[in-house]
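User: Study the shape:
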Amino acid sequence: MRYDILIRGGAVVTPEGLRSTDVAIAEGAIVAVGPELAGAAGEELDARGLCVLPGLIDAHVHFNEPGRTAWEGWATGSAALAAGGGTVCLEMPLNASPPTLDAASFALKRAAAEAASRADFALWGGLVPGDLDRLDELAACGAVGFKAFMSNSGIADFPAADDLTLYEGMARAARLGRVVAVHAESDVLTAALAARAVAEGRLGARDYLASRPVIAELEAIGRAILFAAETGCALHIVHVSSGRGVALVAEARARGVDVSCETCPHYLALDAEDLARIGAAAKCAPPLRDGPTRAELWARLLAGEVDLVASDHSPAPAELKAETPAGFFGVWGGIAGAQSTLALLLSEGYHGRGLGLPAIARLTAGRVAERFRLSRKGQVAIGHDADLALVDLGARWILAREDLRDRHRLSPYVGRALHGRVVRTIRRGQTIFLGGTVAEGAGGQLVCPEV
């Protein structure tokens, strides 16, 4: 046999555990996995001492192009993803301008991504008030699903879905065979609490935290689950910040509701005290929670109740991260983290809490591909795309700002000690990151769900 690439002697992560084995790649796919594979290759990679994980699939990024490339962009966003072991992203319909709400805007975003993205990509469409026939257009284009906000999105051209829009949109999505993803926070609660705090001059970081309590998340999750159960829609709750929120999802799933959830590295690695210390770079919605809430979230994740971990990479220029007359309430809420997901899970999970490598692979790749029906992605297995992250599990390092590849490099993790580092990232057999350097050019392709 002759292969394009032979990766020799790595510790390959499978759902069953680790195997010291070789991986052979031809025409962008994995064609053989086994010890001491016979045959020649155009390139042989010595992976002894390294862990071979499936390439990370980030189900929740905002790369903001076209229209707000000054905030991020496909070139810089995908470079950050690649540097963190990522080979695929699912990009959200906002904060691009225009947002991805119909076939025309989908085509614009696809063209921007094909021109600049190192990573393969799937595109979310938007579920907003208006003509639901646009969902049919988006599905025909290959949208992976539809994203809705149950609270103010912060972007004027992507309004929140009222209850009727959400309910009818879920019914349409069920007929189209697409997932609906929701930002689940009660706008009634959060808007009123925020308005009261601003009116009373309580404008600090802790005041912001108090304006978005866990109950706002729980109320919205419960309402979304009720709609999904009624319509038969596949529901995905994004960026769940609390163990109680995960519990609602797990209980509904046990009743037969088709519902999944993600959490984010920032809810696992940071808490409310970190927000007070770090400031604007750590502002997000839902916000960081207190220590006990973070601990309960970890307990639910370790128990296998969290489906996946996604970055919710949502950067903005420095001027939008500065306080306004509304104080901390006026700061853009979004954390830049696409590059750090895997390193944080290795540091906080594998080394810190005994989270197994098969579980990390499932949270960052296997379950993502399964949930969103990306059948060739997510596993180091014959017939799958050769999407791989080669990791030095023993590496200890400090994240420096100059290590970052996103546009503005405003990360809450700068200066953090990490344990485990991505050495090489391979997308469909092509190295897109190696030893601190991201490959030039693009090469990313649209990935569509199998329906």
Notes: The mean pLDDT is 97. The chain has two domains: 2-52+382-393+418-438, 55-371.
